[in-house]
TrEMBL record:
Keywords: Heme, Iron, Metal-binding, Oxidoreductase, Signal. This is Cytochrome P450. PANTHER family: P450, PUTATIVE (EUROFUNG)-RELATED. CDD domains: CYP7_CYP8-like. One of its GO terms (biological process) is mycotoxin biosynthetic process. Its cofactor is heme. GO terms for molecular function: heme binding; iron ion binding; monooxygenase activity; oxidoreductase activity, acting on paired donors, with incorporation or reduction of molecular oxygen. Belongs to the cytochrome P450 family. It comes from Penicillium alfredii. Heme binds at C424. The keyword Metal-binding applies. The keyword 4Fe-4S does not apply. InterPro entries: CYP450_monoxygenase_sec-met, Cyt_P450, Cyt_P450_E_grp-IV, Cyt_P450_sf. SUPFAM superfamilies: Cytochrome P450 (SSF48264).
Length: 506
């Protein structure tokens, strides 16, 4: 528990809000975790947002420190054992998943907070299910499902590209995870999930949620009963290792089947809420740059497209990974420039960060990517620019000799998949899915915005857990089949043991 500001001169400087006392709290309710990033230095408004390496925000009953410098981010990483994610995990278990049993919450809570540490164990057990042969199996299923969606893309001349991404990714990702009895196969359950995910803020605020968060509350009920049915029909037996490991570990810990179903609701958030907007922005950022799109099409066509004797056009995923460095680099640049990742930890003990700044036990520590992703110490003088070749190794950039001097490793600045030691284990599955889809669409279709201009659409701040800028409304586009690839049969070919992408992590 934080006992108020002690006024220690070593504490980071406080930043005031326009509305006294409750301003920062209201800001968080309005903008979600993105609010912390909005407080960091901004070239257009440098007086209101002083360029401190760390500052504090008084939040009525608590205090949050916001780190904006990569050096202090690394200092925080060195003190990781005093920074905990557990309180957030428990809040999300209660408010998002809706688990209220004291006994179950104690089982799940971290050992350092007096619990049995089961939530941490389940998380730990998931990591190997998203690598190696388990990842191969999920990729195989996922890429079987995507081509029919891409085939249909050209059927209607105008469509909402965001809804299209949402439906295709939901079907392919949940089927690859849950198998033939996938509870999200039912469109009612799919729609319930997106109503739930897009309205999480009132659930988290938790004031009479059955009234104030009605949509999310009702949608969650629909999801839970579908997941329960999936368990009753032994769905995990025919699902991925990810689904069966989560089910088994939870049940083995002594948690009842209904609470196990509740605990499964946040899994769909991890699986979908970043991948969908990341797919949309990947398409948006490639199609809005005609020269880059042209270069990437050429790269894929030359290196990853194979034509079988019966004329089937096959995109090899391992070739996208190993032989299309521009595509992989541009994807990471899109993640760097679009992410609103803002890792948050609870401070468990007073820490003197970098021998200079005192951060006090019971406060929150936030590390918003807005500041880090654009920091010149990390990214050099082009930090503010979109450079699709930024991550290419020297040998890969024959056409661009100026890239030879670049060091592809950037410590402390790439935040899209989190910061060590909490790094997204689903990043390889997501990259296979997003890059496979983007590659096939790029070859087969021309896409232009219905409005005539690629103006970035508005984002939905109520979808508080997504860090990839989910949209508030859709984005209408015109789609035209490219002449050279009309009327062809298309497939993906995954390759055993080659599912991991060489991605940057923070
Ligand atoms: C482009 C897509 C994705 C992005 C940008 C992304 C991003 C992230 C980030 C930033 C974190 C760390 C959160 C924090 O520190 O507070 C995270 C954690 C996590 N992600 Fe992802 N993610 C993506 C896709 C996926 C997928 C497809 C899965 C599952 C198959 C997944 C599963 C997870 C899990 C389980 C964690 C928690 C890890 C832990 O606590 O140790 N993610 N992700």
């Amino acid at each position: 528990v934080y006992h108020g500001c002690q006024g220690d001169p070593r504490e980071p400087p406080a930043v005031s809000s326009e509305i006294p006392v409750i301003g920062h709290l209201l800001g968080m309710l309005r903008y979600g975790f993105e609010y912390f990033g909005l407080q960091t230095a901004d070239q257009t408004d440098s007086k209101k947002h002083p360029n401190y390496p760390i500052f504090s925000l008084n939040m009525l009953f608590s205090k949050a420190y916001v780190i904006t410098s990569p050096a202090l981010l690394q200092a925080a990483q060195r003190n990781n054992k005093f920074l905990s994610f557990d309180p957030f995990l428990m809040t999300s278990t209660e408010r998002i998943a809706g688990v209220h049993s004291r006994k179950v919450l104690k089982l799940l809570r971290g050992k350092q907070s007096g619990g049995d540490g089961i939530a941490g164990e389940i998380m730990h057990a998931m990591t190997p299910t998203l690598f190696g042969t388990a990842l191969d199996r999920m990729n195989e299923r996922m890429v079987e499902l995507l081509p029919p969606f891409v085939d249909e893309l050209g059927d209607a001349p105008t469509l909402d590209l965001y809804s299209w991404c949402q439906h295709a990714i939901t079907v392919a990702s949940t089927d690859a995870t849950y198998g033939p009895l996938n509870p999200y196969k039912d469109k009612v359950v799919e729609d319930a999930f997106w109503d739930f995910e897009s309205n999480l803020t009132p659930l988290l605020v938790n004031i009479l949620p059955w009234l104030t968060a009605r949509k999310a509350w009702e949608s969650r009920k629909t999801m839970i009963s579908a997941i329960l049915k999936y368990y009753q029909n032994n769905g995990p037996d025919t699902g991925s290792e990810l689904a069966s490991v989560r089910y088994r570990r939870t049940r083995d810990a002594g948690i009842g089947i209904e609470d196990t179903a509740r605990l499964e609701t946040p899994m769909a958030i991890a699986l979908l809420s970043n991948t969908v907007p990341a797919t949309f922005w990947t398409l948006f950022d490639l199609y809005s740059r005609p020269q880059l799109l042209h270069d990437i099409r050429k790269e894929i066509e030359l290196n990853a497209l194979h034509v079988a004797t019966d004329g089937t056009h096959i995109i090899h995923l391992a070739d996208l990974r190993d032989k299309c460095p521009l595509l992989v680099s541009a994807f990471q640049e899109i993640l760097r420039t679009r992410t609103t990742s803002s890792p948050m930890r609870c401070v468990m003990k007073d820490i003197l960060l970098a021998d200079q700044y005192l951060i006090k036990a019971g406060t929150l520590l936030n590390m918003p990517s807005e500041a880090m992703s654009r920091n010149q110490d990390v990214w050099g003088s082009t930090a503010a620019e979109f450079d699709p070749r930024r991550y290419m190794k020297p040998v890969e950039s024959v056409e661009h000799p100026e890239d030879r001097k670049k060091d592809p490793r950037r410590v402390g600045g790439f935040m899209a998949f989190g910061v060590s030691p909490i790094i997204c284990p689903g990043r390889h599955f997501a990259s296979n899915e997003i890059l496979g889809l983007a590659a096939m669409i790029a070859l087969r279709y021309d896409i232009s915005p219905e409005s005539g201009v690629w103006t970035p659409p508005q984002r939905n701040s109520m979808a508080i857990v997504s860090i990839m800028g989910p949209l508030k409304e859709g984005f209408k586009v015109n789609v035209k089949r490219r002449k050279e690839f009309e009327e062809k049969r298309w497939e993906f070919q995954p390759q055993e043991g080659k599912g991991r992408f060489p991605l940057m992590i923070g």
